[in-house]
Sequence to fold (700 residues):
Amino acid sequence: MKKEYLGEWLLPGGPHSDIILSSRIRLARNIKTFPFLTRSTREIQEKIREMVREVLTENGLLKKGSFFTNEELSPLKLQFLLERHLIPLDFLGSRMHRGLYVSKDETLSILINEEDHLRLQVLTSGLNFFPAYEKIEKLDNRLAEKLPYAFSSELGFLTACPTNVGTGMRASFFIHLPGLVITKEIEKILRSLLAMGLVARGIYGEGSETKGNLFQISNQITLGLTETEILEKVTKVGEEILNYERRAQEFLLKNLRLSVEDKIYRAYATLKNARLLTSEETINLLLMVRFGIVAELIKDVDLKTINTLLILTKPANLQIYYNKEMSPKERDEKRAELVRSFLKDRGNGR
Amino acid sequence: MKKEYLGEWLLPGGPHSDIILSSRIRLARNIKTFPFLTRSTREIQEKIREMVREVLTENGLLKKGSFFTNEELSPLKLQFLLERHLIPLDFLGSRMHRGLYVSKDETLSILINEEDHLRLQVLTSGLNFFPAYEKIEKLDNRLAEKLPYAFSSELGFLTACPTNVGTGMRASFFIHLPGLVITKEIEKILRSLLAMGLVARGIYGEGSETKGNLFQISNQITLGLTETEILEKVTKVGEEILNYERRAQEFLLKNLRLSVEDKIYRAYATLKNARLLTSEETINLLLMVRFGIVAELIKDVDLKTINTLLILTKPANLQIYYNKEMSPKERDEKRAELVRSFLKDRGNGR
Fold:
């Protein structure tokens, strides 16, 4: 992982990536020769970690990425990984022996001893679950050759938490919904998700808050449906929300154009001129500019730049980018500097 | 008065006009053959107005400016004159027969039947009372030749309100104090003024609120001092506050530079990019940019442009500029358009 490198999954390119930033699939797996982590000792945790590390080495995967134990990761580095969506919120601050594998392009990662012995994750740009599933299935099959998975012919894959039993699969996507948020239709959409067995979460997964107008939407049910059925369902819901969002944007640009333009041009101007920017304000301004690009009001900056800034301006990424530990005040200064340097020599947004 | 014309007194040029926008002297005068206005009939008011109009005509002054009766001024035009500091707040909405003379360059005006029969006013750029006094004294002497002033050898000029008896003179200046406001020293300064017989008011005179960081400071005492003594005193106080302000600005630029730069560059960027601007926000942003110019942080726009915008963006001036009555929402749009057109093709403030 390079400090200035950004996972390929965050670079626009996938289908509908103007609104759906990325899709993610994760599989929960356990090794049947070991007890679930809730009943494991630290010795067992270490054994699991070493076993997986060995398999990854044998498979040649270690050459294509990096392996870390949580003991060797500083709090700053953990925060950095969280901000890049490579680990979930509850990976931080655990006393368990944990491990993490991340591929060089940051699209594939394996968590060891998080809630389950293994969590495989694939990230991809846009709404694009089927290619992602091919990739994760291939990885899963390779690991299954060496690791005896806990599997019941009746229930499917067995997991620490019953909500994951069956496929052990969670499919989610990050979606940017400024139109639905501004028109206040978002509440209705989020309520209807629940009825379809899906749920909206904050961008750092379970337990994290929803911020600005960026949402993570994922399936809740893992049992009773095949992997393909789950992915088809989540894809369909993604496409539906996408259409609602496009209609809300059209409505806004037709009926409240001036007020939308005002918000967007102010946000862009502020990003290009501020000398101090907090993390929170930066996210909101970047997302407003992102909307401006999608709405074709801003044409001299691209989604790649904004997606990149969304990650690099986060506290730990910023410090690692500048290779310097910084106080919040110093960060606000450097954050504004970074944003200006990425947006400089651009016009006034018309 | 032209809609796009701005009184010469508001164009920088006078001493210290970076901080003290303008100086104003007004003289209260009454005609001894008529009762004070508190006891006047509408017939008497009309007689006074016609008498003054005749004298102005005889003197050739009417050729050098315009004369209006309050009956012929629409509420919009009255508001326009108030915003340009040519009439005070309480000139609006009166049932008295009143009159107004304004010279073409908007530096000299005469109010008829406001609180006193006559109020002469001279405005000038910067802190520059003595040339202004020469001008108003000359006008006063010319009028005194034809109009029998109410004068007591013991008390001086007699006025409707005892606070104006004596010289009948009020000397005031508009001062922009961002440094003292940001450093919160302003309260101390305003308190000390009172002890010296001066008072700070809102920019539209008595009864108007102080807005942003622009103040009008004037003498309270008119009796027991000569005109020269009053002007010397007010000038001295002006110079003192000026020095406090310069020191506060130096302090800010030395110790809180980043935060000041942040505020200034954001304000400038917002003015150049907003599509909707309320009157209140515009004043605050313009005054912040004005500070940026004085502090030499913004170099591609001049004080004249900002001073002009401070007037032209006010509700009535805006409507008269565009020659169109507008709702508040339409005004916000046109205001933003006007500001952008004055500031366009300028750089990023560096």
User: Anything to note?
Assistant: The interface with chain A takes residues 258-259, 261-262, 265-266, 268-270, 272-276, 333, 336, 348-349 of chain B (CB under 8 Å).
